Amino acid sequence: MDYEAFVYLWFDSKNRMFYLGFHKGHEDDSYTHSSSIMESFSKKNIPPYMRRRILARGSYDDMAALEVSLLENRKEKCWDRYYNAKFAVFPPPPMLGEDNPNYIDGRSKDPEKLRESNRERSRKWREKYQEKSRESSRKYYEKNRGKILEKKRQSHAKKKLEKSLQTDSNSIV
């Protein structure tokens, strides 16, 4: 394999539509497309009305840039015949701080940072709403006391029955 990526064009002869994209990898791998609009299929079951043409092969950066320029060209001329919903800007903007889609109030997807952030938010929430939560629970208990006690009795009786059945089955053996 003397290339990193390739640009491809799918043609859907049933709907007379196209999908243009690029993929980092080999053209013989299992990748088909990433369209959320065009029909999904795997390399093993390509519909007979779908055809793919490899337009170019080369480095990842070159193919990403080529895809963008081809999409820009198509957008000006015949965008209504393409499944492509949108296309990315190349090169992509830096994904730092507030520009990063994972950025939420300074939090990130780092598991340890996320756990710490969640603990802190939970602590703040408890401080703020603890009294409201207690009051709400108390009102619910008062309103549904009969139901709650009945469920407790049923649960206790069920556990007692299960224990006695288990004891009986052990003594039979």
How would you characterize the overall build of this protein?
It is a single chain. The chain has a 3-stranded antiparallel sheet with strand order 2-1-3, covered by helices on one side. The protein has 2 domains: 5-81, no CATH class; 96-145, no CATH class. With 173 residues, it is α+β, with helices and mostly antiparallel strands. It has helices spanning 60-78, 111-143, 145-172; strands at residues 5-12, 17-24, 50-58.
Radius of gyration: 30 Å
The major β-sheet equals: 3 strands, antiparallel
SSE order in H/E notation? EEEHHH
Order of strands, main sheet, comes to 2-1-3
Structural class determined from secondary elements = alpha+beta
* Portion in helices: 40-55%
Task: Let me know the average pLDDT.
Answer: 81
What does this entry show, briefly?
With 173 residues, the protein is of the alpha+beta class. It has helices spanning 60-78, 111-143, 145-172; strands at 5-12, 17-24, 50-58. It has 2 domains: 5-81, no CATH class; 96-145, no CATH class.
